[in-house]
Structures are given as C-alpha cells and as structure tokens.
Amino acid sequence: MNINLIKCHGSGNDFLLIDEISNPYSFTEEARQNLALSLCDRQKGLGADGILFVLKSERCHAAMRVFNADGSEASMCGNGLRCAGRYVSELVGKEEIIIETMKADLKVASAPAIYDDIPTFNVEISPVFFELDKVPMNMNFSRLVDKKIPEISENLHFTVLAVPNPHLISMVDAETIISNQQKAISETVNGPNNLFPDGVNVSFVHTMARGTIYVRTYERGVGFTNACGTAMSASSLVTCLLGQNELGEEIDVYNNGGKVRVVVNRKEDGQYFMELIGNATYLFAAELELSLSQPESFELISKTDFNEEDAYGLLQKHSKLVVDSKVFSKA
Length: 331
Fold this sequence. Notes:
By secondary structure, the chain is of the alpha+beta class. About 20% of the residues lie in helices and about 40% in strands.
C-alpha cells in the first residue's frame, strides 16, 4: 500500500504525521506499533521521535494518537499536539479547534509567531494529577512535591505529577544539568524498578531568571529528546508551585530544540491547566510504498520539502546562545 505523511516538529521534537481523515487507511494496533518501530528508526527509517496518527472524532474536529519510536503509545504529547493541531486547523479551515486525545479533549489555536515567520500554535495541556496512583508511582505518600526520593538520589528534590503523561521533575543547578545524574536516574526508573512500574519522563529544570527556565528531558519510550511539550508544561507548573514564577504569566522555556512559552493557569475549582505556545514546523511531505507486515522494507516514492526549517533555525541559534550563556557557561 501507499502512505502519504508529513515530517514535522515542535521544538525539535520530530514526528511523522499520518492523516487517517482524508485517506482510506485502516491500521490495526499491531500495524501502528510496527510502523512506529520501522519508520521512526533513525538509521534505517525516516527517523523521528514518534508517529502522530490524525483520525476522525465523533465529538471533536479530530483525534490524535501518538506512538513513540519504541512502538509504545503515549497518552499525550504537547509538541505533537501543536503539529497535529496545525494540520487539522488547516484541513478544516479554522483557527480554533478541539482535538480528542487519550485522556482529554484539548483546545488548539493559532497564535502570534514565537519568532520571525514561524507557524505558532497555543495548545491546552490538561488534566493535571498530583495523586501518585495516577502516575503511577509506588510510595507511602499520596503526593510528592519537592521531596527527596532516597531510592534514586540522596541530594536531589523531586516533584511527581501526571499531565496526563507521568513526570518526575527536579529543580537543579547548572553543574547538575551537565552531570551524568539525569541519565542514571532515567535509566533506573525506566527499567525494571519498584517505584514506577510503567516508567516515567524525567526532567531536570534550571532557573535562568524570573520567567525563564531551561528544561532537559529524558522521555519514556524515546530517551533524551530535544524537547518534550508535556515536560516543559509540567516543569513550568512546578516552578509556580515553588514560588519561582507566577500563575497567569508567560514563562520562556528553553530546551535543546529551541524555545516555547508556557502560561500556567488555575481554575476556580483549583484544577491547573497550561497553555503551551510554540512552533509547528513542517519539514517535508513524503509518499511511501510499503507492506504493513514488513514496513521496514518501505520504498520512498516521493519527497517534497516545505522550506520552513530555515526560519526555525534562527530561533534555535538564538536559543543556543541564551542557554550557553545562562546555563553551560556557569557549570
């Protein structure tokens, strides 16, 4: 069969987007996993952190399912939602839409450019859970905010939450950012362990100034990525909980893939939600010929570049200068 797709990225977190609304595709769950394993392979495939499947929804403008490069399914992906949101917004001709995800129906809207000539979208990140059984995490606490977890570190403090993806977040200094601690902790809690039976995303967060943070994330099912949208949103929330930033105000979040903005909000009922604002950049469109039983043997029929990456490259250069001067030069 032939499959059309778009390679895209949000903050350097890259995806292959497959439209099941306009095309007559029908994939089994096994086929979705195998497509992710084969096409996301950076040595033999097209290379990506995951696949975004855009489907019809009975109650929203569209639905999004996210399969990581290892074949596992993620409950949400903030950077991916911006890309899928842009695609659906252009498909239906609306600047404000709602996308169905595994745990919630989320708002997506076109937003002013985060940097010159960059397609920018504002996506809702919710729901937020602090209850450890929602993560899940096995500890004798109902919640864990800014506390030590001796089983994984003697000196660091952690906050655990789900947004709805599970996140383990630690506020750290510049020296810790460049150390090997994050890799060691991430591999521990994403391998066989008693604390996180389903694994967890691990983020180290460094405050550069009021309203400005740097986030580095090890994503469950992927490894270290340029950026993770739900991690940047969750990290911004943690800084507000700890009094380092304010609710309702924009927080500039720098990452290895560039920069986003996050606004942390609290509803009257006390529930939090975040606005994640950043790029949705198209790299190329491609047509593949493949067999669903052996997708690794695909043939690239055509490929067309979108020529949007140069504009994003300017933001990346700017972000790197900021991070190098504010984080790595201090380490």
